Amino acid sequence: MGTPLRLALIGTGGRGQIYADVLRRLPPGLAEWGALCDHNPEILQAFAARNGLGVPLVYEVGDLLRRDDLDAVLICTPDSAHRAPAVACLEAGLHALVEKPLATDPADAAAICAAARAAGRILHLGFVLRYDPCVCRLRDLVAGGAIGRPIACMVHEAVGWFHAATYMRRWNRFRRYSGDLLLHKGCHTLDLVNAVTASYPRRVAAFGGTAVFVPRADAGDRCDRCDRTADCLYVADQGEAYRKRFYDTAGPQVLPEPVCVYNVDKDTTDTVTLIADYDQGMRLSYTMTLVSPRGERRLVLVGTGGEIRCDLSTYRIELSRLPDRPTEVIEVARPSGAGHQHHDLALLQHFLERIRDGDDPSAGIRDAAMSGAVAFAALESMASGVPVAVPPA
Ligand SMILES: NC(=O)c1ccc[n+]([C@@H]2O[C@H](COP(=O)([O-])OP(=O)(O)OC[C@H]3O[C@@H](n4cnc5c(N)ncnc54)[C@H](O)[C@@H]3O)[C@@H](O)[C@H]2O)c1
Predict the structure, then answer these.
(1) How do beta strands 72-75 and 95-98 pair?
(2) What is the tens place of the pLDDT at every residue in 247-257?
(3) Domains of the chain from N-terminus onward
(4) Which residues line ligand 1 (CB under 6 A)?
Protein backbone atom coordinates (compact mmCIF):
# COMPACT_ATOMS: atom_id res chain seq x y z
CA MET A 1 0.00 0.00 0.00
CA GLY A 2 2.95 2.37 0.56
CA THR A 3 3.07 5.24 3.00
CA PRO A 4 -0.17 7.02 3.92
CA LEU A 5 -1.01 10.09 1.84
CA ARG A 6 -0.51 13.22 3.92
CA LEU A 7 -3.43 15.61 3.85
CA ALA A 8 -3.99 19.14 5.03
CA LEU A 9 -7.45 20.39 5.89
CA ILE A 10 -8.17 24.02 5.03
CA GLY A 11 -11.27 25.28 6.83
CA THR A 12 -11.94 23.46 10.09
CA GLY A 13 -15.67 24.22 10.33
CA GLY A 14 -18.68 21.94 9.91
CA ARG A 15 -17.62 20.20 6.71
CA GLY A 16 -14.02 19.92 7.91
CA GLN A 17 -15.34 18.02 10.93
CA ILE A 18 -17.04 15.52 8.62
CA TYR A 19 -13.66 14.81 6.99
CA ALA A 20 -12.01 14.39 10.39
CA ASP A 21 -14.69 11.79 11.20
CA VAL A 22 -14.29 10.14 7.79
CA LEU A 23 -10.51 9.90 8.07
CA ARG A 24 -10.95 7.93 11.30
CA ARG A 25 -13.21 5.47 9.43
CA LEU A 26 -10.78 4.91 6.53
CA PRO A 27 -8.93 1.60 6.35
CA PRO A 28 -5.62 2.09 8.19
CA GLY A 29 -2.61 3.28 6.24
CA LEU A 30 -4.50 5.14 3.48
CA ALA A 31 -4.12 8.71 4.69
CA GLU A 32 -3.21 10.83 7.67
CA TRP A 33 -3.36 14.50 8.60
CA GLY A 34 -0.16 16.46 7.95
CA ALA A 35 -1.48 19.89 8.98
CA LEU A 36 -4.65 21.85 9.71
CA CYS A 37 -5.37 25.38 8.54
CA ASP A 38 -8.07 27.87 9.47
CA HIS A 39 -7.76 31.62 9.61
CA ASN A 40 -9.74 31.66 12.86
CA PRO A 41 -7.30 30.57 15.63
CA GLU A 42 -10.06 29.74 18.12
CA ILE A 43 -11.92 27.50 15.69
CA LEU A 44 -8.66 25.84 14.59
CA GLN A 45 -7.39 25.12 18.09
CA ALA A 46 -10.78 23.85 19.27
CA PHE A 47 -10.95 21.57 16.22
CA ALA A 48 -7.49 20.11 16.85
CA ALA A 49 -8.25 19.58 20.56
CA ARG A 50 -11.70 18.08 19.93
CA ASN A 51 -10.29 15.62 17.42
CA GLY A 52 -7.09 14.87 19.36
CA LEU A 53 -4.90 15.91 16.41
CA GLY A 54 -1.35 16.88 17.35
CA VAL A 55 -0.36 18.10 13.89
CA PRO A 56 0.96 21.55 12.91
CA LEU A 57 -1.71 24.26 12.99
CA VAL A 58 -1.42 27.17 10.57
CA TYR A 59 -3.56 30.24 10.04
CA GLU A 60 -2.51 31.07 6.48
CA VAL A 61 -2.50 28.85 3.40
CA GLY A 62 0.95 30.27 2.54
CA ASP A 63 2.34 28.61 5.69
CA LEU A 64 1.03 25.26 4.48
CA LEU A 65 2.79 25.68 1.18
CA ARG A 66 6.15 26.08 2.87
CA ARG A 67 5.83 22.48 4.11
CA ASP A 68 7.25 19.74 1.92
CA ASP A 69 5.48 16.79 3.53
CA LEU A 70 1.98 17.17 2.04
CA ASP A 71 0.36 15.32 -0.87
CA ALA A 72 -3.09 16.88 -0.99
CA VAL A 73 -5.47 19.36 0.57
CA LEU A 74 -9.17 19.23 1.43
CA ILE A 75 -10.60 22.72 0.94
CA CYS A 76 -13.58 23.31 3.23
CA THR A 77 -13.67 27.09 3.35
CA PRO A 78 -16.99 28.84 2.59
CA ASP A 79 -18.27 28.71 -1.00
CA SER A 80 -16.97 32.16 -1.91
CA ALA A 81 -13.51 31.46 -0.43
CA HIS A 82 -12.45 28.44 -2.51
CA ARG A 83 -10.48 30.15 -5.26
CA ALA A 84 -7.46 31.54 -3.39
CA PRO A 85 -6.57 28.39 -1.42
CA ALA A 86 -7.38 26.07 -4.33
CA VAL A 87 -5.28 27.96 -6.87
CA ALA A 88 -2.35 28.38 -4.46
CA CYS A 89 -2.32 24.70 -3.47
CA LEU A 90 -2.70 23.38 -7.02
CA GLU A 91 0.07 25.73 -8.23
CA ALA A 92 2.26 24.38 -5.43
CA GLY A 93 1.74 20.87 -6.82
CA LEU A 94 -0.80 19.54 -4.32
CA HIS A 95 -3.89 17.58 -5.34
CA ALA A 96 -7.09 19.26 -4.17
CA LEU A 97 -10.48 18.07 -3.03
CA VAL A 98 -12.56 21.25 -3.16
CA GLU A 99 -15.97 21.39 -1.55
CA LYS A 100 -19.03 22.12 -3.64
CA PRO A 101 -19.85 24.41 -5.30
CA LEU A 102 -16.45 24.80 -6.96
CA ALA A 103 -16.83 28.60 -6.79
CA THR A 104 -19.53 31.24 -6.61
CA ASP A 105 -18.79 32.88 -9.94
CA PRO A 106 -17.61 31.67 -13.35
CA ALA A 107 -14.26 33.51 -13.20
CA ASP A 108 -13.27 31.83 -9.92
CA ALA A 109 -14.37 28.42 -11.21
CA ALA A 110 -12.36 28.87 -14.41
CA ALA A 111 -9.27 30.01 -12.47
CA ILE A 112 -9.33 26.89 -10.26
CA CYS A 113 -9.74 24.60 -13.28
CA ALA A 114 -6.94 26.39 -15.15
CA ALA A 115 -4.62 25.98 -12.15
CA ALA A 116 -5.39 22.24 -11.94
CA ARG A 117 -4.86 21.81 -15.67
CA ALA A 118 -1.55 23.70 -15.67
CA ALA A 119 -0.26 21.81 -12.64
CA GLY A 120 -1.51 18.42 -13.86
CA ARG A 121 -2.98 17.79 -10.43
CA ILE A 122 -6.24 16.13 -9.44
CA LEU A 123 -9.17 18.43 -8.77
CA HIS A 124 -11.93 16.47 -7.08
CA LEU A 125 -15.22 17.98 -5.93
CA GLY A 126 -17.31 17.26 -2.84
CA PHE A 127 -20.29 15.94 -4.79
CA VAL A 128 -21.46 13.31 -2.35
CA LEU A 129 -24.45 12.28 -4.48
CA ARG A 130 -22.09 10.75 -7.05
CA TYR A 131 -21.50 8.05 -4.41
CA ASP A 132 -25.16 7.51 -3.54
CA PRO A 133 -26.11 3.90 -4.38
CA CYS A 134 -29.27 5.05 -6.17
CA VAL A 135 -27.33 7.51 -8.34
CA CYS A 136 -24.67 4.85 -9.04
CA ARG A 137 -27.45 2.47 -10.16
CA LEU A 138 -28.98 5.13 -12.42
CA ARG A 139 -25.59 5.78 -13.94
CA ASP A 140 -24.98 2.06 -14.54
CA LEU A 141 -28.43 1.60 -16.07
CA VAL A 142 -27.94 4.48 -18.50
CA ALA A 143 -24.35 3.51 -19.33
CA GLY A 144 -25.54 -0.07 -19.91
CA GLY A 145 -28.06 1.13 -22.49
CA ALA A 146 -31.21 0.38 -20.43
CA ILE A 147 -33.07 3.33 -22.00
CA GLY A 148 -31.06 3.72 -25.18
CA ARG A 149 -29.57 7.15 -25.82
CA PRO A 150 -30.79 9.74 -23.24
CA ILE A 151 -32.73 12.49 -25.01
CA ALA A 152 -34.59 14.28 -22.22
CA CYS A 153 -34.26 14.69 -18.49
CA MET A 154 -36.93 16.33 -16.31
CA VAL A 155 -35.93 17.26 -12.77
CA HIS A 156 -37.86 18.77 -9.90
CA GLU A 157 -35.52 20.03 -7.20
CA ALA A 158 -38.05 20.16 -4.40
CA VAL A 159 -36.51 21.85 -1.39
CA GLY A 160 -38.49 21.25 1.79
CA TRP A 161 -40.23 24.33 3.25
CA PHE A 162 -38.44 24.22 6.62
CA HIS A 163 -35.02 23.72 5.01
CA ALA A 164 -35.78 26.61 2.64
CA ALA A 165 -36.62 28.91 5.52
CA THR A 166 -33.32 28.13 7.28
CA TYR A 167 -31.53 29.44 4.16
CA MET A 168 -33.36 32.76 4.58
CA ARG A 169 -31.87 33.03 8.08
CA ARG A 170 -28.33 32.13 6.99
CA TRP A 171 -25.59 33.49 4.69
CA ASN A 172 -26.93 31.35 1.84
CA ARG A 173 -29.53 34.00 0.93
CA PHE A 174 -26.82 36.31 -0.44
CA ARG A 175 -25.27 35.66 -3.82
CA ARG A 176 -21.95 37.09 -2.74
CA TYR A 177 -21.59 34.16 -0.31
CA SER A 178 -23.48 31.29 -1.98
CA GLY A 179 -23.54 32.29 -5.64
CA ASP A 180 -27.38 31.93 -5.34
CA LEU A 181 -29.32 28.93 -4.04
CA LEU A 182 -29.66 27.67 -7.62
CA LEU A 183 -25.89 27.10 -7.48
CA HIS A 184 -25.40 26.31 -3.79
CA LYS A 185 -28.29 23.83 -3.56
CA GLY A 186 -28.85 22.96 -7.21
CA CYS A 187 -25.26 22.09 -8.09
CA HIS A 188 -25.54 18.63 -6.47
CA THR A 189 -28.43 17.70 -8.76
CA LEU A 190 -27.07 19.45 -11.84
CA ASP A 191 -23.77 17.61 -11.37
CA LEU A 192 -25.55 14.29 -11.09
CA VAL A 193 -27.42 14.97 -14.35
CA ASN A 194 -24.02 15.36 -16.03
CA ALA A 195 -22.75 12.19 -14.34
CA VAL A 196 -25.79 9.98 -15.01
CA THR A 197 -26.28 11.03 -18.62
CA ALA A 198 -22.54 11.29 -19.36
CA SER A 199 -23.14 14.58 -21.11
CA TYR A 200 -22.30 18.22 -20.63
CA PRO A 201 -24.47 21.35 -21.03
CA ARG A 202 -24.04 23.70 -24.02
CA ARG A 203 -26.83 26.32 -23.78
CA VAL A 204 -29.22 27.41 -21.06
CA ALA A 205 -32.39 29.54 -20.90
CA ALA A 206 -33.96 30.29 -17.55
CA PHE A 207 -36.84 32.08 -15.84
CA GLY A 208 -36.98 32.67 -12.16
CA GLY A 209 -36.53 34.95 -9.23
CA THR A 210 -37.79 35.41 -5.71
CA ALA A 211 -41.37 34.24 -5.75
CA VAL A 212 -41.97 33.00 -2.21
CA PHE A 213 -39.79 34.92 0.23
CA VAL A 214 -40.85 38.38 -1.00
CA PRO A 215 -41.38 41.35 1.35
CA ARG A 216 -44.71 41.53 3.20
CA ALA A 217 -46.00 44.86 4.49
CA ASP A 218 -48.18 43.11 7.07
CA ALA A 219 -45.24 41.32 8.72
CA GLY A 220 -42.54 42.65 11.05
CA ASP A 221 -38.80 42.47 10.51
CA ARG A 222 -38.42 39.74 13.18
CA CYS A 223 -40.71 37.05 14.54
CA ASP A 224 -40.47 38.52 18.04
CA ARG A 225 -41.73 41.87 16.68
CA CYS A 226 -44.50 40.58 14.41
CA ASP A 227 -48.29 40.35 14.75
CA ARG A 228 -48.66 37.61 12.15
CA THR A 229 -46.76 34.77 13.81
CA ALA A 230 -49.96 32.86 14.70
CA ASP A 231 -50.62 32.15 11.03
CA CYS A 232 -47.00 32.10 9.77
CA LEU A 233 -45.57 28.78 8.59
CA TYR A 234 -42.03 29.97 9.07
CA VAL A 235 -42.15 31.43 12.56
CA ALA A 236 -38.82 30.99 14.33
CA ASP A 237 -40.02 30.64 17.92
CA GLN A 238 -36.47 29.58 18.93
CA GLY A 239 -38.01 27.00 21.28
CA GLU A 240 -36.71 23.47 21.81
CA ALA A 241 -38.55 21.91 18.84
CA TYR A 242 -37.52 24.69 16.44
CA ARG A 243 -33.95 24.59 17.69
CA LYS A 244 -33.65 20.83 17.21
CA ARG A 245 -35.19 20.94 13.75
CA PHE A 246 -32.96 23.84 12.75
CA TYR A 247 -29.78 22.06 13.88
CA ASP A 248 -30.89 18.77 12.30
CA THR A 249 -31.51 20.59 9.01
CA ALA A 250 -28.79 23.19 8.85
CA GLY A 251 -25.96 21.66 10.84
CA PRO A 252 -24.31 22.39 14.15
CA GLN A 253 -24.12 26.14 14.01
CA VAL A 254 -25.28 29.05 16.11
CA LEU A 255 -29.06 29.42 16.02
CA PRO A 256 -29.53 32.57 13.99
CA GLU A 257 -31.68 35.56 14.89
CA PRO A 258 -35.42 35.05 14.21
CA VAL A 259 -35.46 37.45 11.26
CA CYS A 260 -38.54 37.51 9.04
CA VAL A 261 -37.95 35.22 6.05
CA TYR A 262 -40.02 37.58 3.91
CA ASN A 263 -38.64 40.94 4.96
CA VAL A 264 -34.98 40.13 5.54
CA ASP A 265 -32.53 41.40 2.88
CA LYS A 266 -31.64 38.81 0.26
CA ASP A 267 -30.78 38.51 -3.41
CA THR A 268 -31.06 34.78 -4.02
CA THR A 269 -33.71 33.29 -6.26
CA ASP A 270 -36.14 30.86 -4.64
CA THR A 271 -38.01 29.59 -7.71
CA VAL A 272 -36.34 28.80 -11.03
CA THR A 273 -37.26 26.92 -14.18
CA LEU A 274 -34.60 26.35 -16.79
CA ILE A 275 -34.06 24.41 -19.95
CA ALA A 276 -30.64 23.32 -21.15
CA ASP A 277 -29.30 21.78 -24.31
CA TYR A 278 -26.59 19.17 -23.78
CA ASP A 279 -24.07 17.54 -26.04
CA GLN A 280 -24.96 13.97 -27.11
CA GLY A 281 -28.45 15.29 -28.02
CA MET A 282 -29.80 15.43 -24.46
CA ARG A 283 -32.09 18.18 -23.12
CA LEU A 284 -32.85 19.06 -19.54
CA SER A 285 -35.80 20.81 -17.97
CA TYR A 286 -35.18 21.61 -14.33
CA THR A 287 -37.31 23.37 -11.76
CA MET A 288 -36.22 24.39 -8.28
CA THR A 289 -38.95 25.24 -5.77
CA LEU A 290 -38.34 26.18 -2.16
CA VAL A 291 -41.73 25.48 -0.66
CA SER A 292 -42.20 21.77 -1.09
CA PRO A 293 -43.69 19.59 1.64
CA ARG A 294 -40.59 17.39 1.61
CA GLY A 295 -37.07 17.78 0.27
CA GLU A 296 -36.93 15.51 -2.78
CA ARG A 297 -35.13 15.17 -6.06
CA ARG A 298 -37.61 13.89 -8.62
CA LEU A 299 -36.23 12.78 -11.93
CA VAL A 300 -37.60 11.41 -15.19
CA LEU A 301 -35.07 10.36 -17.79
CA VAL A 302 -36.25 9.50 -21.29
CA GLY A 303 -34.13 7.69 -23.82
CA THR A 304 -34.62 6.35 -27.32
CA GLY A 305 -35.31 2.90 -25.84
CA GLY A 306 -37.18 3.58 -22.61
CA GLU A 307 -37.71 5.70 -19.55
CA ILE A 308 -36.56 5.89 -15.95
CA ARG A 309 -38.51 7.49 -13.11
CA CYS A 310 -36.95 8.02 -9.74
CA ASP A 311 -37.33 10.06 -6.60
CA LEU A 312 -33.84 9.80 -5.16
CA SER A 313 -35.08 9.86 -1.56
CA THR A 314 -37.06 6.62 -2.05
CA TYR A 315 -34.23 4.46 -3.44
CA ARG A 316 -36.78 3.08 -5.89
CA ILE A 317 -36.24 3.23 -9.64
CA GLU A 318 -38.97 2.51 -12.19
CA LEU A 319 -37.57 1.36 -15.51
CA SER A 320 -39.87 1.04 -18.53
CA ARG A 321 -38.39 -0.26 -21.75
CA LEU A 322 -39.81 -0.05 -25.26
CA PRO A 323 -41.89 -1.37 -26.85
CA ASP A 324 -44.44 -2.46 -24.21
CA ARG A 325 -42.41 -4.22 -21.55
CA PRO A 326 -43.87 -4.16 -18.01
CA THR A 327 -42.31 -1.57 -15.74
CA GLU A 328 -39.44 -3.01 -13.76
CA VAL A 329 -39.17 -1.74 -10.18
CA ILE A 330 -35.64 -1.67 -8.85
CA GLU A 331 -35.32 -1.30 -5.09
CA VAL A 332 -31.84 -0.02 -4.30
CA ALA A 333 -30.42 -0.92 -0.89
CA ARG A 334 -30.20 2.18 1.28
CA PRO A 335 -26.71 3.02 2.48
CA SER A 336 -25.98 2.45 6.13
CA GLY A 337 -25.13 5.27 8.54
CA ALA A 338 -26.73 8.60 9.30
CA GLY A 339 -27.02 11.48 6.81
CA HIS A 340 -24.54 11.00 3.97
CA GLN A 341 -21.87 9.23 6.04
CA HIS A 342 -21.60 6.45 3.45
CA HIS A 343 -21.15 8.91 0.59
CA ASP A 344 -18.58 10.99 2.49
CA LEU A 345 -16.40 7.93 3.05
CA ALA A 346 -16.73 6.79 -0.57
CA LEU A 347 -15.92 10.31 -1.79
CA LEU A 348 -12.71 10.62 0.19
CA GLN A 349 -11.64 7.07 -0.70
CA HIS A 350 -12.17 7.81 -4.39
CA PHE A 351 -10.08 10.99 -4.18
CA LEU A 352 -7.25 9.08 -2.47
CA GLU A 353 -7.47 6.23 -5.01
CA ARG A 354 -7.23 8.69 -7.88
CA ILE A 355 -4.02 10.11 -6.39
CA ARG A 356 -2.52 6.67 -5.69
CA ASP A 357 -3.44 5.33 -9.13
CA GLY A 358 -1.99 8.39 -10.90
CA ASP A 359 -5.39 9.07 -12.52
CA ASP A 360 -5.47 11.43 -15.51
CA PRO A 361 -6.78 14.70 -14.01
CA SER A 362 -8.42 15.99 -17.21
CA ALA A 363 -11.87 14.30 -16.98
CA GLY A 364 -12.27 15.34 -13.34
CA ILE A 365 -11.36 18.94 -14.19
CA ARG A 366 -13.99 18.96 -16.96
CA ASP A 367 -16.58 17.54 -14.52
CA ALA A 368 -15.64 20.25 -12.02
CA ALA A 369 -15.94 23.02 -14.62
CA MET A 370 -19.31 21.73 -15.80
CA SER A 371 -20.77 21.23 -12.33
CA GLY A 372 -21.65 24.90 -11.93
CA ALA A 373 -22.03 25.76 -15.60
CA VAL A 374 -25.82 25.42 -15.84
CA ALA A 375 -26.43 27.52 -12.73
CA PHE A 376 -24.03 30.27 -13.88
CA ALA A 377 -25.56 30.39 -17.35
CA ALA A 378 -29.11 30.31 -15.91
CA LEU A 379 -28.43 33.28 -13.64
CA GLU A 380 -27.07 35.19 -16.65
CA SER A 381 -30.06 34.17 -18.74
CA MET A 382 -32.51 35.30 -16.05
CA ALA A 383 -30.79 38.68 -15.96
CA SER A 384 -30.52 39.17 -19.72
CA GLY A 385 -33.68 37.43 -20.87
CA VAL A 386 -31.85 35.47 -23.56
CA PRO A 387 -30.36 31.96 -23.78
CA VAL A 388 -26.73 31.78 -22.73
CA ALA A 389 -24.00 29.57 -24.18
CA VAL A 390 -21.89 27.52 -21.76
CA PRO A 391 -18.18 28.10 -22.38
CA PRO A 392 -16.39 24.87 -23.33
CA ALA A 393 -14.39 23.32 -20.48
N1 LIG B 1 -20.54 18.22 0.08
C2 LIG B 1 -21.47 18.48 0.97
O3 LIG B 1 -22.44 17.76 1.12
C4 LIG B 1 -21.31 19.70 1.84
C5 LIG B 1 -21.99 19.78 3.07
C6 LIG B 1 -21.78 20.92 3.85
C7 LIG B 1 -20.96 21.94 3.41
N8 LIG B 1 -20.34 21.83 2.20
C9 LIG B 1 -19.46 22.89 1.69
O10 LIG B 1 -18.29 22.90 2.50
C11 LIG B 1 -17.77 24.22 2.57
C12 LIG B 1 -17.57 24.62 4.02
O13 LIG B 1 -18.83 24.66 4.65
P14 LIG B 1 -18.96 24.63 6.25
O15 LIG B 1 -20.39 24.39 6.53
O16 LIG B 1 -17.93 23.74 6.82
O17 LIG B 1 -18.60 26.15 6.60
P18 LIG B 1 -18.09 26.68 8.04
O19 LIG B 1 -18.41 28.12 8.05
O20 LIG B 1 -18.63 25.81 9.14
O21 LIG B 1 -16.51 26.47 8.00
C22 LIG B 1 -15.66 27.18 7.16
C23 LIG B 1 -14.35 27.40 7.87
O24 LIG B 1 -13.43 27.99 6.95
C25 LIG B 1 -12.66 28.97 7.65
N26 LIG B 1 -12.11 29.89 6.65
C27 LIG B 1 -12.78 30.82 5.92
N28 LIG B 1 -11.95 31.41 5.04
C29 LIG B 1 -10.72 30.85 5.21
C30 LIG B 1 -9.47 31.01 4.58
N31 LIG B 1 -9.31 31.88 3.58
N32 LIG B 1 -8.43 30.27 5.01
C33 LIG B 1 -8.58 29.38 6.02
N34 LIG B 1 -9.75 29.18 6.66
C35 LIG B 1 -10.81 29.89 6.26
C36 LIG B 1 -13.63 29.59 8.64
O37 LIG B 1 -12.95 30.20 9.73
C38 LIG B 1 -14.44 28.36 9.07
O39 LIG B 1 -13.89 27.73 10.21
C40 LIG B 1 -18.76 25.12 1.82
O41 LIG B 1 -18.31 25.31 0.50
C42 LIG B 1 -20.04 24.29 1.82
O43 LIG B 1 -20.93 24.59 0.75
C44 LIG B 1 -20.50 20.73 1.43
Answers:
(1) parallel
(2) 999 887 789 99
(3) 5-127 (3.40.50.720), 130-213+266-389 (3.30.360.10)
(4) 10-16, 37-40, 43, 61, 76-79, 81, 85, 99-100, 126, 128
